[in-house]
């Protein structure tokens, strides 16, 4: 029997974050919008740090980080609930005290140099696998690392790397054995010589293109094992996929609330548009889909906590979240009519941002491919949650 009811403690943690978002994050929204509209970053790193430290005062630090590194280690279900709360604001706030999950595979020396300073917020990383010729088909990567004495020499180009403009080190994936197609992950400091170039997108923040031109990296900077990079890459992507649709739940709830408020007050032909069936159906469909998404996300997160194979559940949550969040923001924009299309309201901002959810960390098509393949190969059953 699957039991998703929250404990008293879980409720308290969730409610604290809900209040934090309402009191500390949402009031920043007008200024964040104003800055973004004038081409500046919505929130400066120092402001983000200040907010993170404020949350830390109440113990909110490293939601998924193990206690031995000073984290809360709250588990996936709780992380999904908290991510949903944060998603209620478009201010891109994240709790401090975390690091990419694969950095925990670092050896003791690497942990001191990369993992711990990242958790502390003193260093910033980025995860670089995608290349101009290799996105969905990550196995097509061409970047190479050639052994030279105690070093490796990396050459190649990466693209669409989140955080690549700010990062001071990257976890980069390069082919180390062409014959066998073996790929290795390297921890590479910016000072070792890689360059980044911002990529303009339809969203409010841009990823980076990274260039490696004979970048020399010591052998000790291999993350995990030589030739086992793909396993790490799949762990990075696979383990936290549920967090993306979790964030979208919050965005959709907030958007639907905005749509409902507007429908109640906007009158046409002598009646609030809320009285019109066309509008009511948009509201009803959105509410049902948010609820369905919530269950898909919680189920995927619950499987992660149970250490079950959660790949099918995570792909379903990611696919449904991307598709439905885009439909919901489109409906809410429609309910607002011309106002929804303006830059006076944040609806168009969410509209642009949520579009990304259908592309990164596995496109809709790739999620469908995974889901269908699991069923066709008998790795998953159509009875889903009931097994
Ligand atoms: C803003 C942003 C941030 C990103 N952050 C990172 C990051 O931090 N690190 C990183 O490494 N990468 C990152 N990415 C890259 C992202 O993961 C890729 O863009 C994504 O995997 C798709 O790859 P692609 O763009 O090369 O599209 P392609 O793989 O070329 O796909 C093009 C189209 O074909 C479809 N398609 C591809 N293969 C199939 C198939 N077999 N069957 C049916 N349809 C198919 C795709 O779904 C898509 O619609 C980011 C991308 C963006 C836009």
From TrEMBL:
GO molecular function: acyl-CoA dehydrogenase activity; flavin adenine dinucleotide binding
Acyl-CoA oxidase/dehydrogenase middle domain span: 126-214
Keyword Hydrolase on entry: no
Domain Acyl-CoA dehydrogenase/oxidase N-terminal: 7-122
Known cofactor(s): FAD
Short name of any one Pfam family annotated for the protein: Acyl-CoA_dh_N
One Gene Ontology cellular component: cytoplasm
Matching Gene3D superfamilies: Acyl-CoA dehydrogenase/oxidase, N-terminal domain (1.10.540.10), Butyryl-CoA Dehydrogenase, subunit A, domain 2 (2.40.110.10), Butyryl-CoA Dehydrogenase, subunit A, domain 3 (1.20.140.10)
InterPro entries: Acyl-CoA_dehydrogenase, Acyl-CoA_DH_CS, Acyl-CoA_Oxase/DH_mid-dom, Acyl-CoA_Oxase/DH_mid-dom_sf, AcylCo_DH-like_C, AcylCo_DH/oxidase_C, AcylCoA_DH/ox_N, AcylCoA_DH/ox_N_sf
Keyword tags: FAD, Flavoprotein, Oxidoreductase
Biological process according to GO: fatty acid beta-oxidation using acyl-CoA dehydrogenase
PROSITE patterns for this protein: ACYL_COA_DH_1, ACYL_COA_DH_2
Domain Acyl-CoA dehydrogenase/oxidase C-terminal: 227-376
Positions in coiled-coil regions: none
Repeat found in the keyword field: no
Family designation: Belongs to the acyl-CoA dehydrogenase family.
Protein name: Medium-chain specific acyl-CoA dehydrogenase, mitochondrial
Species name: Kibdelosporangium aridum
């Amino acid at each position: 029997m699957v039991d998703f009811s929250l404990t008293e403690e879980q409720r308290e943690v969730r409610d604290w974050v809900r209040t934090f978002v309402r009191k500390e994050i949402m009031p920043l929204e007008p200024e964040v919008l104003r800055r973004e509209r004038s081409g500046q970053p919505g929130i400066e790193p120092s402001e983000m740090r200040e907010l993170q430290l404020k949350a830390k005062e109440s113990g909110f630090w490293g939601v998924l980080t193990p206690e031995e590194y000073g984290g809360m280690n709250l588990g996936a279900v709780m992380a999904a609930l908290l991510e949903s709360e944060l998603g209620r604001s478009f201010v891109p706030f994240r709790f401090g005290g975390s690091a990419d999950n694969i950095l925990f595979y670092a050896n003791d020396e690497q942990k001191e140099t990369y993992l711990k300073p990242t958790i502390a917020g003193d260093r910033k990383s980025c995860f670089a696998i995608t290349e101009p010729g290799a996105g969905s088909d990550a196995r097509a990567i061409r970047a190479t690392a050639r052994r030279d004495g105690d070093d490796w020499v990396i050459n190649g180009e990466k693209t669409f790397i989140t955080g690549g403009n700010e990062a001071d080190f990257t976890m980069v994936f390069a082919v180390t054995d062409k014959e066998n197609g073996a790929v290795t992950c390297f921890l590479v400091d910016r000072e070792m010589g890689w360059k980044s170039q911002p990529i303009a997108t339809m969203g409010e923040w841009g990823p980076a293109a990274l260039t490696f031109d004979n970048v020399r990296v010591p052998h000790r900077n291999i993350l995990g094992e030589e030739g086992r990079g793909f396993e790490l890459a799949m762990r990075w992507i696979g383990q936290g996929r549920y967090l993306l649709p979790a964030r979208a739940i919050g965005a959709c709830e907030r958007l639907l609330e905005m749509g409902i408020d507007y429908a109640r007050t906007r009158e046409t032909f002598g009646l609030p548009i809320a009285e019109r069936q066309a509008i009511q159906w948009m509201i009803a469909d959105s509410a049902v889909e948010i609820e369905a998404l919530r269950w898909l996300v919680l189920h995927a997160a619950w499987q992660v906590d149970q250490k079950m194979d959660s790949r099918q559940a995570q792909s379903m949550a990611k696919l449904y979240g991307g598709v439905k969040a885009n439909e919901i923001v489109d409906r809410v924009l429609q309910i607002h009519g011309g106002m929804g299309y303006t830059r006076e309201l944040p609806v168009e901002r969410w509209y642009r941002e949520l579009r990304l959810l259908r592309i990164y960390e596995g496109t809709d098509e790739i999620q469908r491919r995974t889901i269908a393949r699991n069923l066709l190969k008998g790795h998953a059953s159509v009875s889903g949650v009931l097994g």
